[in-house]
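Pasting as-is:
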Amino acid sequence: MLSAELINGVSVVVKGEPITLYDVKEEMQISRVDADIATNNLIRKKLEEAEIAERKISVSSSEVYDDIKKTAAANKMSIDELYEAVRNSNGLTSSEFKARTEEKLLSQKLYSAIAYSSIDAPSEDELKEYYELHKEEFLRPSAFAVTIYSSKNKNALEKKITIPMFYSDEIKVDEQLLEYERISPELASLLENTQSNTFTPVVSEPNGSYVSFYLKEVKAPSSVEFESVKNQIANMIASQKREQVLSDYFARLRNSADIKIIREL
């Protein structure tokens, strides 16, 4: 039984687990959605947690560490640098980030159990049809005009990013035009997600130095051939099908679950 004091702050009870008004407000702020969507998101999360418990799905600490290590490597960072970047961008401590990673892996295992076996691989015709209907999604910048700042002294480089007028003879400067097809997918993604006239985060190089790119201009986009994005399209279609299977599954689960709406915002 929920105490009277707790009930006063409760919005919804899902299978005996409360969602508070505070939870709803926090979800509204984090996801930037209205109260109805925030409540539905939290209800689904509670249903997922219940399914994970009922199916006895678990994630080991080594799986969490391996995932964090892969994320750091994909961003050309050490694990400590990744923790620092997450703390600076999202305000999460390393412990909170580990907890979020564990939640993500648990959800992935649950989704695999529910959806993967129900999904057929898209046919060649499906892939080509998607490509023709969504060509604008596969435009890529032809090149990036950048100023590359590199240094063995990470603190000096970070100060340069914070105070652009700062000068240090420990920082090397190089103007380059980076062609999209000639750079790594990781660097392309980093630059695509950087606004013009701003710096990228500091990333570590294999030689032990640090680098940040100041993005001056993104050159006109060009189209991408079907064969080069075929696997990407297959993943996108599979993701859409998987989400539809999951949405249908949790809709049925919600209809049969013990859910009580106590009060709404």
